[in-house]
Design brief:
857 residues; alpha+beta; Immunoglobulin-like; Neutral Protease, domain 2; 4 domains; five-stranded mixed beta sheet; 30 helices; globular; aminopeptidase activity; metalloprotease; Aminopeptidase_N-like_N; signal; Aminopeptidase N
Length: 857
């Protein structure tokens, strides 16, 4: 560690030392919040409260003036060390206990000598804007994981919870929302209004938030609770069609969580803020959940997966009020703890609202493919990761946390039982309410409700990286002409105990058995078979290697399996086999082609369509795409026209648009955009029209630039117009224009709306642009440390993925390996993100080698 504060040095500060010693040691204060600093402050500081004041000017170019009053107790007199990730020039004045006080500013820390136990700090400052997302007519804060200190001076760590009050001065026509309700409003001079908010319950700094601006507002009440929704969507009919479900799902989620936990809503209120271009799908701020507007206000053509995703997202964020906000992880190495329970609860909450959906199938298709996407890579990480400094907390987020962890939690529930799980979680929430806890604290509580060795189980599944490889073989016994099912788990994973349910598909039907893999080998005897699907439970986890007979059977007959869980489970396993070179991409395409037209379940069909697009662009050569392209277009178009299920029709449409390569198909896209060709009974939204335009442009259609400009003029929503204008240069047929756009992305101010950047990068690197984007990749990947410093938590991984999207050349593979092999260019955690992002590239190159060797042999 380049800069670090040892507990010894900090103790010297806190118990007093000479001025000379102070001057020598102050320069060693580490950037960010080190674990050592966090632990010491946690021991020393109690009873914290913040009162914040911000004055929002009416011009985005003007600075925001702020003042914070921090009260608390320090166990021993000594230095107070606050965090402020801005320049010293933004600190205007510091007072301690009513007197102006000198201070040191070192590596984004404010250090103040406090001679007393009690303290009241008052700091006047200019607000930092790294995480204060300012637009012409609205702004919002987003302070997770360590970004509160980019906005105002504070003790920015999750286990120093505090009460927050806020006073916000804004232009008079602006709406405002924060963690507490508005208790007072007063009109100020020159058209400004002062809003005073109620005090919050104790919360971590990253959960403090406010939003203000030109928002529209709706509200609804149910069972004594009122929710306000703030939004910017200008299509009133679109809002009308969505608003009832949005409110209903929030109220039902609160009701379900109160019943499950036995604890009423732990905070004063839940309001919701819908933000265009929001960095995440949602963020669980106390009292004011923020969402990406397009995640909640859906188009009429929304697929079933999109509707389920909205319900799950709402349930996820509401569940955070208990898991994450009421009880918060002590340190961000346990950030997965709040996320796993939010997802785990969401899957339960959504069930009664969608009674016709097979929710075991939903759980399988939602989590397993996403978790495998990272866990199969060389950059795979444990669920619980080490963290030395909060500045690196953003690198902990990913599919392992959001998708593997819920699978593991579901296994835990099966091991100890649902009733015991409920009792254990209620005890956990009650014991640590408005405080902090670790994963081990939870395991210690759950241990009281089971005879299982949860500590060993937890070590394997939570603290070790990777996933078990489970080899499934059917061995024929010549004496009795039966087969013996041998399930052999790699010895290094023998402690990864779990339940699995193999399905043996035979002429007379299927036969399922449930096995508890608590050692390395299991066997089972049966008669002749067509194929064996190693697990159809929806909750087992690992790479299940199919035997050759099963692979060959599923390649031809997967679509004939009559059980939905069997088809979806086998589909996911066949995809994993393709990625490992055991099924050729063209064979995968043919299997999907047969299956899509017969699949009646929307969830499985949408997963098939996703795999079809990924296989087509990532794993087929250009010649192979020419061979199958027109056939696939025809299949998708015919299925789309005849399919009566609107969700499936919408999914088919989006896949068709993204897959077209023929001239006939391209002409059809233009005519759909013009309105000359209709998709039967499918209402296309403004977003659909924009999507069509972008896909037309990347195909370098004649007059594509005119089409783009016409589309820009047609867009009614001003936020959507800004988004489209931003992406336009990336769609240009002029390579010089695209080059200039990429150069501008090197500046942080041009990357502020991250979803817009990711859309632009998708088209910059689209396979139909050929090799013209190779020149961007080295610079883009070298920017990763800068992206981590300036972007939000998911952006480094998304940036790497977007810049490697669908690349499969040996040139790009070598370029990425050079960066991964370099000694000091990237931190270990960023290298893990790059390994994860580059995995499709590496597998595409390896698969071509396997095919070439096969042909030579």
């Amino acid at each position: 560690m380049k800069y670090w504060i040892s507990l010894f040095v900090l103790s010297l500060w806190l118990w007093g030392c000479t001025a000379q010693q102070d001057n020598e040691t102050l320069q060693d204060v580490e950037m960010g919040v080190s674990k050592e600093l966090a632990e010491l402050r946690s021991e020393q500081l109690t009873g914290l409260s913040y009162h914040l004041q911000f004055s929002i000017p009416d011009l985005v170019s003007q600075p925001i003036e702020g003042m914070v009053t921090i009260k608390g107790r320090q166990n021993e007199p000594g230095f107070l060390i606050l965090d402020f990730q801005e320049g010293a020039s933004k600190i205007k004045q510091v007072s301690l206990n009513g007197q102006l006080k000198p201070y040191e500013f070192v590596n984004h820390h404010i250090l103040i000598q406090n001679p007393n136990n009690q303290f009241e700090l008052e700091i006047q400052f200019e607000a930092g804007e790294t995480s204060l997302n300012r637009n012409e007519d609205y702004l919002y804060t987003l302070l997770v994981p360590d970004r509160a200190s980019t906005l105002f001076p504070c003790f920015d760590q999750p286990d120093l919870k505090a009460n927050f009050t806020l006073t916000l001065q804004t232009p008079k026509d602006w709406k405002v929302v924060s963690g507490g309700s508005v208790s007072k409003q007063s009109v100020e001079n020159e058209g400004f209004v002062m809003h005073t908010f109620n005090k919050t319950k104790p919360i971590s700094t990253y959960l403090f938030s406010f939003a203000a601006g030109e928002f529209k507002e709706r509200q609804a009440s149910y069972a004594g609770k009122t929710i306000h929704m703030y939004y910017r969507e200008t299509d009133t009919e679109k809002v009308r069609k969505n608003v009832r479900d949005i409110f209903r799902q929030h109220f039902k989620s609160v009701e379900w969580m109160e019943s499950y936990t036995g604890i009423p809503l732990p905070f004063e209120k839940i309001d919701i803020v819908l933000i265009p271009g929001f960095q995440y799908s949602g963020m669980e701020h106390v009292g004011a959940i923020q969402y990406r507007q397009s995640s909640l206000i859906l188009d009429a053509s929304a697929t079933q997966t999109e509707q389920l995703n909205r319900a799950s997202l709402i349930a996820h964020e509401v569940a955070h009020m208990w898991f994450g906000n009421l009880v918060t992880m002590k340190w961000f190495d346990d950030v997965w703890l709040k996320e796993v329970f939010a997802n785990f609860m969401a899957s339960k909450i959504v069930k009664p609202n969608f009674p016709k959906v097979d929710h075991d199938l939903r759980f399988l298709t939602e989590h397993q493919p996403e978790a495998y996407e990272e866990d199969r890579t060389k950059g795979a990480n444990p669920i619980k990761q080490e963290l030395d400094n909060l500045s690196n907390a953003g690198t902990l987020y990913g599919n392992i946390i959001y998708h593997k962890a819920p699978i593991v939690m579901r296994q835990l529930e099966k091991i100890i039982g649902q009733r015991q799980m409920v009792n254990g979680l209620r005890a956990y929430l009650k014991k640590y309410a408005y405080s902090n806890a670790t994963w081990d604290d939870l395991i210690n509580i759950l241990d009281q409700y089971t005879d299982q060795d949860l500590e060993s189980w937890s070590y394997a599944w939570v603290k070790k990286r990777g996933m078990p490889q489970i080899n499934v073989e059917s061995i024929r016994d010549k004496e009795n002409e039966k087969y013996r099912l041998s399930i052999d788990m790699d010895s290094m994973y023998k402690d990864w105990v779990q339940f699995i349910r193999p399905a043996i598909i035979q002429k007379e039907g299927s036969h399922e058995i449930e096995l508890f893999l608590n050692d390395s080998t299991k066997t089972y005897s049966y008669d002749d078979y067509f194929c064996v699907i190693p697990d159809i439970s929806g909750y087992a986890y690992g790479y299940f290697q199919l035997d050759k007979k099963s692979r060959l059977h599923l390649q031809k007959y997967l679509h004939l399996l009559d059980n939905e869980m069997h088809r979806a489970s086998a589909l996911i396993m066949m995809w994993e086999e393709m990625l490992r070179g055991n099924v050729y991409p063209l064979s995968m395409i043919e299997m999907l082609e047969r299956s899509i037209v017969t699949e009646q379940n929307s969830l499985t069909k949408e997963l098939m369509l996703y795999y079809l697009k990924e296989c087509f662009w990532q794993y087929l050569t250009a010649d192979e795409r020419k061979t199958v392209g027109l056939r696939l277009e025809t299949m998708l178009w015919v299925d789309m026209q005849k399919n009566e299920e609107v969700h499936a029709k919408a999914a088919l449409f989006h896949t068709y648009v993204g897959l077209v390569t023929s001239q006939k198909g391209t002409n059809r896209l233009v005519n759909i955009w013009k309105g000359n060709v209709k998709v039967k009974e499918l209402e296309l939204s403004e977003r659909d029209s924009i999507y069509l335009t972008m896909e037309i442009a990347v195909r370098d259609v004649k007059y594509a630039q005119n089409i783009l400009q016409q589309q820009l003029l047609k867009i009614q929503n001003p936020d959507e117009k800004r988004r489209f204008s931003f992406v336009l240069p990336a769609l240009s047929s002029n390579e010089i224009v695209r080059d200039d756009f990429f150069r501008k992305l090197k500046q942080a101010e041009n990357r502020e709306v991250e979803p817009w950047v990711l859309t632009a990068l998708y088209y910059l690197h689209h396979p139909l642009r050929g090799t013209t984007s190779h020149k961007y990749i080295k610079t883009a990947l070298q920017l990763l440390p800068e992206i981590q410093r300036t972007g939000d938590i998911f952006f480094p991984a998304q940036w790497a993925e977007a810049n490697l999207n669908y690349h499969k050349s040996i040139y790009v593979e070598r370029l990425v390996h050079e960066l991964l092999d370099a000694e000091d260019d990237l931190s270990p955690k960023l290298k893990d993100k790059l390994w994860q992002a580059a995995d499709p590239l590496f597998r595409a190159v390896e698969i071509r080698k396997i095919i070439k060797q096969s042909k030579e042999n």
